[in-house]
Amino acid sequence: MDFDLTWLLWGLPIAFGLGWLASRLDLRQLRIENRLAPKAYFRGLNFLLNEQQDQAIDAFIEAVQNDPDTSELHFALGNLFRRRGEYERAVRVHEHLLSRADLSRADRHRAQHALALDFLKAGLLDRAEEALRKLEGTAYEEQALLALLAIYERSRDWAQASEIARKLDAGSPGQFAGRQAHYLCEQATKASPEAAEQLLEKAIKAAPRSPRPRMDLAALRRRAGDAQAAYDLLAETARTVPTSIPLLAAPLADAAIACGRRDEVAALLRANYEQTHSLDVLDAITSLEDEPDAARQWYVQHLQREPSLVAAAKWIAGEKLEHEQFHPDVQRALEHAVKPLTRYRCAACGFESKQHFWQCPGCQAWDSYPPRRVEEL
């Protein structure tokens, strides 16, 4: 069979024409997709600015479908899911990013951090801890350590929290020595007396100006019957951290009575009271007085300086009234009225409590309770 060259002459222009048409169609499709992706992206941004998260999510999903290789769109979508509480969808987005082989090192670390935040917000602390541990040595290491610290505080794993605080104190501009001392003190509350003493000594070295380790160690030695050692520790704390005297005034007075240092402590407390007019220091001073009348006189002097309902109630408790039969009722009413005034108040969140806390039960802040009662603020 003879080959007809005319078909070749016709075929070459036809093939060229079809190729040119196909390329034009591809370019047209590419232009359409490129126009659609930015429109969807900017539409999503507009919805975000107007706080319309549902519509923003829909727009970003459309943008991701049109341009599945853009990592920024995935990050935006994952963060939106997390903000809305759709943690499973956020996890899927960030795990998809981590599974991509073409993801840059910086974006991989960013996706790992975002995934850890997903688990943290979802309350999956074990998975969050595992994800945060993988950020060691990255640009997100400090943020990861702070998140780990929050996890260990929340789970009251004080040993791990102490280790993280040590790393943060060594590698960041913030000061975590005081926090580390608190963690060691928390561990000491659950330890044997011997182990507790070692932990508290370590806490004193970590934060020499923190009053809690010395106060806890003094209480430990007082329970062991060593009043002199307890007194020495508390007196040293009073000298080095004068602002802590209202907190340690009562145990200091108790230890001084036990070891015969009453006059020395009385002088120290009176000097501090002249400067602070603290109710706790005042109570400690009255506990050192031998005569009840002399003790009550201190409350009278306080009333002359400060209009204190707390001091008035304590003075009236030891006085004889003209109508003594009504004294119990009056006293009960006064004690009920002064209860809110004798509380401590967190400076961070305003949570009030009958006792002083080193960590606020409300907002979990450390050292947020000033050593003064509500009436003194």
UniProtKB/TrEMBL annotation:
Matching InterPro entries, A to Z?
LapB, Rubredoxin_2, TPR-like_helical_dom_sf
Q: Which SUPFAM superfamilies match?
A: TPR-like
Write out the topological domains of type Cytoplasmic.
Answer: 24-377
Carries keyword Membrane?
yes
Molecular function per GO? iron ion binding
Q: Where does Fe cation bind?
A: C346, C349, C360, C363
Q: Which UniProt keywords apply?
A: Cell inner membrane, Cell membrane, Iron, Membrane, Metal-binding, Repeat, TPR repeat, Transmembrane, Transmembrane helix
Q: Where are the transmembrane segments?
A: 6-25
- Give the membrane topology: Single-pass membrane protein
Instruction: Show the GO cellular component annotation of the record.
Output: cytoplasmic side of plasma membrane
Primary localization: membrane
Cellular compartments annotated? Cell inner membrane
Please name one Pfam family that this protein belongs to.
Answer: Zn_ribbon_LapB
Locate the coiled-coil region(s) and give their ranges: none
| Every LapB rubredoxin metal binding domain range | 344-368
Among its keywords, does the record have Plastid?
Answer: no
A GO term (biological process) for this protein? lipopolysaccharide metabolic process
Domain of life of the source? Bacteria
Instruction: Show the HAMAP family listed in the entry.
Output: LPS_assembly_LapB
User: What does this gene product do?
Assistant: Modulates cellular lipopolysaccharide (LPS) levels by regulating LpxC, which is involved in lipid A biosynthesis. May act by modulating the proteolytic activity of FtsH towards LpxC. May also coordinate assembly of proteins involved in LPS synthesis at the plasma membrane.
Family, according to the entry, reads as follows: Belongs to the LapB family.
* Protein name in UniProt: Lipopolysaccharide assembly protein B
User: What organism is listed for this UniProt entry?
Assistant: Ramlibacter cellulosilyticus
Tell me what gene encodes this.
lapB
